[in-house]
Amino acid sequence: MSVYEYSLITISNHENIYQDFKEGLERQKGVDYELIKINNNQHQFSSARTAYNEAATKANGKYLVFLHPDIRFLDEYSLRDTLKKIASINDFGIAGIAGSPWDLYKNRSYIVTTIVQGKNKEHVGTNIKETTEVQTVDESFFVMKKDYWEQLPFTDYPGWHFYAVEQCLRAIIDKKKNYVVPARIWHKSTGGSEDKNYVRIGKQMVAEYGDYFPYINTTVTKWDTKGITKYTTPWFRYAKRQIHRYLDKYK
């Protein structure tokens, strides 16, 4: 059996996007990795967690790197340098390239990252210059040690949201810390959206883990875990966003 330093695991829904990702990956230098493609073009999986658990079982790397296929690298050593920073952390639960700290800004969660996103490569959030502790990391690119995943595999919650966030919460409960490192990476997507499924599973996360946290910060929004607002705020935010989208459509 071949043993690699890193196992890169990505879920492919569209072959053309995956091939573009693979071409960019093949130009990366100085990284010992295997690439594990999860083919989901026929909706073979109903959950990111199930797909990632299946792929992780087959992985030979010391580190499991879960990343979206619309990730692109801004120079030929981007991946090497990002993963070296993560591997240099003495001990961690989950590490990534974008995340939300424990503290709040004007009672809201915020993003710390150096990546750019969207077609115009815009920077969002607060820039960082060094490895930074966060409460949760973004799903677009995150890393676990293989032996830690064996202790803490993904749960069986259905759907395609909160899988990295949940792992971060579980790691904190397990007395570990989560981190974000500076990275020269482009996420072509503009990020997550608060659709109905996102709201539903977010409420499940609050119900499951809310007793451990005063609030749950994500790169999308803050989730209250106490009081009446934990029930009302998510659907209020969702309704407000839908109204804004409707109005924007007819401007």
In brief, what are we looking at here?
The chain is α/β, with parallel strands linked by helices.
Describe the structure.
With 251 residues, the chain is an alpha/beta fold. It has a single domain, classed as Spore Coat Polysaccharide Biosynthesis Protein SpsA, Chain A. It is built from seven helices and 16 strands. It has helices at residues 15-26, 48-58, 78-87, 146-151, 163-173, 196-209, 229-249, and strands at residues 4-12, 33-39, 61-67, 71-73, 95-96, 98-100, 112-113, 116-117, 122-123, 132-134, 136-137, 141-145, 178-180, 185-187, 215-217, 222-224. The protein has a seven-stranded mixed sheet. Strands 4-14-8-9 form a four-stranded mixed sheet. α6 packs antiparallel against α7 (229-249). It is globular. The mean pLDDT is 92.
Class based on secondary structure composition and strand pairing? alpha/beta
Kindly report the spatial arrangement of strands forming the biggest sheet.
2-1-3-12-5-13-10
Helix content: 25-40%
Total of DSSP H or I helical runs spanning 4+ residues: 7
Summed over residues and divided by their number, the pLDDT gives a mean of 92
Query: Radius of gyration, Cα only, in angstroms?
Result: 18 Å
What share of residues are in beta strands?
Answer: 15-25%
Give the name of the CATH architecture.
Answer: Alpha-Beta Complex
Organism: Limosilactobacillus reuteri
Protein name: Family 2 glycosyl transferase
Domain Streptomycin biosynthesis protein StrF: 8-208
InterPro entries: Nucleotide-diphossugar_trans, StrF_dom
